[in-house]
UniProtKB/TrEMBL annotation:
<feature type="compositionally biased region" description="Basic and acidic residues">
    <location>
        <begin position="196"/>
        <end position="226"/>
    </location>
</feature>
<dbReference type="Pfam" id="PF24626">
    <property type="entry name" value="SH3_Tf2-1"/>
</dbReference>
<dbReference type="InterPro" id="IPR036397">
    <property type="entry name" value="RNaseH_sf"/>
</dbReference>
<feature type="domain" description="Tf2-1-like SH3-like">
    <location>
        <begin position="101"/>
        <end position="163"/>
    </location>
</feature>
<feature type="region of interest" description="Disordered">
    <location>
        <begin position="196"/>
        <end position="259"/>
    </location>
</feature>
<dbReference type="GO" id="GO:0003676">
    <property type="term" value="F:nucleic acid binding"/>
</dbReference>
<protein>
    <recommendedName>
        <fullName>Tf2-1-like SH3-like domain-containing protein</fullName>
    </recommendedName>
</protein>
<dbReference type="InterPro" id="IPR056924">
    <property type="entry name" value="SH3_Tf2-1"/>
</dbReference>
Amino acid sequence: MIKKNLKEWEDCLPHMEFAYNRAIHSTTELCPFEVVYGFKPITPLDLLPLPIQERANMKASKRADFVRKIHVKTKELIEKKGKNNAARVNKKRKEMLFKPGDMVWVHFRKDRFPKLRKSKLLSRGAGPYKVLAKINDNAYSIDLPIDEFGVSNTFNVADLTPYDGEDLGAYEEEASIARGGEEQLDKKLDMEMDMKTSHGRAREEREACTRGGDAKPAPDRSDRPCRATRSQPRFDRLPRRIRPVQTGRHACANRETIQ
């Protein structure tokens, strides 16, 4: 509808609002305008047939009852749609319930614990903590030190993991694995740097042996960065620029200039 009229998009808002309010919703099977007012908005094409007399001349009490029935039907359809969506989403999920006194691990979300999730190497959770009370099937009150974390002690069941008393917890295992991976990466980089340095020294020693006994000993270049880490390019190794062959008028002008 807007297309190339980017500066006039505000003029299109009433038409877009009318089209949205007149479109039938998949859940309610009615358009939003009909749910609120009890009838569909009239378009220019609807002016040809006259509206039904019963709805046009309906009394206020009957119209209120009619709209009330629409609201009841709409509520039933929304609840039915919600149950269908919940059944489809929870098909492969396992229900997890806790009792007061159970020990659980608490997951640290970035939006709730920003300081504790600054680095990916930090632990993603802590615990175990005791469950104080059950608010409902989806929310629990945890014995979390509020002074230390500064957040509410109510958590969703998705942020809780049962503690069996033996394991270290998935969050601590992930943090230890991440730290171990970083240490292995540092060792690998150090080994590569040592290999490059040793190869360079061996080459210099071979060159010194071939030159003879008067050759100077190879200088110590251990402090110099390796070739891969040099920031400045080696301009002496770049190929010389080849000037293109000029033909025609430009070539004649250049010959006259040279003469």
